[in-house]
Amino acid sequence: MSDLVLTVDEAAARLRVSRWTLYNLIRSGRLRTVKIGRRRLVPVASLSECLDALAEVA
């Protein structure tokens, strides 16, 4: 079964960006996340949404 959510480190690795860049995407509202307890998790589907939105701007 594939993962539904990724940690911030896993999401950054999949996008091949730094944690700092990933947090900037989160802060700007370009990358949707969920918070469970104290953990911030990135739904796998939101990675595709973010990339699609960034591709439209480029």
Structure commentary:
This is Excisionase family DNA binding protein. It holds the Pfam family HTH_17. GO terms for molecular function: DNA binding. It comes from Spinactinospora alkalitolerans. Residues 5-50 form the Helix-turn-helix domain. This protein has 58 residues and is an alpha+beta fold. It has one domain (5-57). 53% of the residues lie in helices and 19% in strands. The chain contains 3 helices and 3 strands. It has helices spanning 8-15, 19-27, 44-57; strands at residues 5-7, 34-36, 39-43. It has a 3-stranded antiparallel beta sheet with strand order 1-3-2. A hairpin with a 2-residue loop joins strand 2 (34-36) and strand 3. Helix 1 (8-15) packs across helix 2 (19-27). The chain is globular, with a radius of gyration of 11 Å. The mean pLDDT is 94.
Compact description:
The protein is built from three helices and three strands. With 58 residues, the chain is an alpha+beta fold. A three-stranded antiparallel beta sheet has the order 1-3-2.
Q: Describe the global form.
A: globular
Strand content: 15-25%
Instruction: Give Rg in angstroms.
Output: 11 Å
Average pLDDT works out at 94
What is the spatial order of strands in the main beta sheet? 1-3-2
Number of strands: 3
Count the DSSP helices. 3
The helical percent reads 40-55%
Unreliable spans are none
Roughly how many Å apart are the termini? 33 Å
Structural class: alpha+beta
Largest sheet: 3 strands, antiparallel
Oligomerization state? single chain
Helix-strand sequence: EHHEEH
Provide the domain count.
Answer: 1
